[in-house]
């Protein structure tokens, strides 16, 4: 029974250590400024170099007891934990701000005196050259995060944005805030697009989409324009085409006369003292004249006038049935007048 209790206690202890270590892994170095002349101030109004830590997890983690160092000698694996710790600056406890909430940030001032506050470290940061910065777990052995900071100008920062480190210009640092806000300010639109589309697939699809959209709009425009022009040509042909049937002009003329008749009647009603019979007589004469002259304006009409003859005209021409009569004068034609039948 005693051995079983020892095994359970050991497993519980190992699980706790593993969970603790996993929580520490979620703490990362987020942003660093080595020369601060216009950025944030401490409680005493001083501007000092600063380091920003971020909790990337969705649970609270206390960073007290963790270590920061700028001495690359701590990477020597032959060093013991006390030897490493002697080259580090510890994050002290006793301040609620070390209890870092989920997705939150904490600022630590460097090149400072720890007596000025819990978040002031004696960590040396050189602004004239590259700086190695490492974050160690509370045991002083486990390396949590590290970065080499290039030489920065005054008020420039070195920030981790979407997993990549980049130099942010003056005024673009975001101490205590999400560096994604900084990305929009520090980078141009082209750089942002390059980061989001490193292989150019989205750019190619967008370009082809714009081209096809323009071609579609042009096709629609010219199709509609062509239809309009065809309709206009058809309308011109219809207007200029000669009427085939005479009834066309008749209808047009009738409509014209009707319009004139309406105007005459209206004027007749409006003008007092003028007899309406005069207007009606004029209208009747106009219609009569139009009916008599219809064929003069029509084409392709043959008018045949009948010629009446007597019932015996043909018989007088048939001389084989009777003797012709001699004309009364030598020059007169031989035309029978009162033939004798044989």
TrEMBL record:
Pfam families hit by this protein: OAD_gamma
Assigned GO CC terms: plasma membrane
InterPro entries cross-referenced by the UniProt entry: Na_pump_deCOase
Subcellular localization, as worded in the UniProt entry: Cell membrane
Domain of life according to the entry: Bacteria
GO biological process, one term: sodium ion export across plasma membrane
Transmembrane segments: 201-228
Keywords recorded for this protein, A-Z: Cell membrane, Membrane, Signal, Transmembrane, Transmembrane helix
GO MF annotations in UniProt: sodium ion transmembrane transporter activity
Residues making up the signal peptide according to the UniProt record: 1-21
Protein's UniProt name: Oxaloacetate decarboxylase, gamma chain
């Amino acid at each position: 029974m005693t051995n079983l209790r020892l095994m359970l206690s050991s497993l519980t202890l190992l699980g706790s250590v593993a969970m603790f270590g996993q929580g520490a892994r979620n703490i990362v170095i987020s942003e660093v400024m080595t020369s601060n002349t216009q950025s944030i101030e401490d409680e005493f109004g001083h501007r000092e170099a600063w380091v920003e830590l971020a909790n990337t997890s969705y649970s609270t983690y206390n960073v007290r007891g963790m270590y920061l160092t700028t001495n690359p000698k701590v990477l020597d694996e032959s060093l013991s934990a006390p030897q490493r710790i002697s080259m580090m600056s510890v994050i002290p406890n006793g301040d609620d701000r070390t209890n870092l909430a989920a997705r939150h940030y904490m600022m630590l001032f460097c090149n400072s005196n720890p007596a000025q506050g819990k978040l002031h470290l004696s960590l040396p940061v050189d602004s004239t050259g590259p700086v190695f910065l490492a974050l160690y777990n509370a045991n002083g052995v486990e390396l949590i995060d590290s970065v080499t900071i290039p030489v920065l100008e005054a008020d420039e920062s070195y920030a981790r944005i979407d997993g990549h480190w980049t130099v942010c210009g003056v005024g673009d640092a975001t101490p205590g805030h999400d560096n994604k806000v900084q990305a929009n300010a520090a980078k141009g639109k082209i750089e942002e697009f390059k980061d989001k589309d490193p292989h150019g697939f989205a750019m190619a699809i967008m370009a082809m989409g714009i081209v096809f959209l323009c071609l579609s709009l042009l096709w629609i425009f010219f199709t509609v324009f062509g239809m309009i022009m065809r309709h206009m040509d058809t309308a011109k042909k219809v207007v200029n085409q000669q009427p085939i049937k005479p009834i066309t002009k008749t209808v047009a003329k009738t409509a014209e006369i009707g319009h004139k008749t309406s105007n005459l009647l209206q004027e007749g009603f409006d003008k007092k003292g003028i007899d309406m019979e005069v207007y009606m007589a004029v209208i009747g004469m106009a219609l009569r004249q139009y009916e008599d002259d219809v064929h003069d304006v029509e084409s392709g009409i043959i008018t045949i006038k009948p010629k009446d003859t007597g019932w015996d005209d043909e018989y007088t021409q048939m001389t084989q049935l009777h003797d012709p009569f001699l004309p009364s004068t030598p020059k007169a034609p031989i035309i029978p007048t009162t033939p004798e039948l044989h």
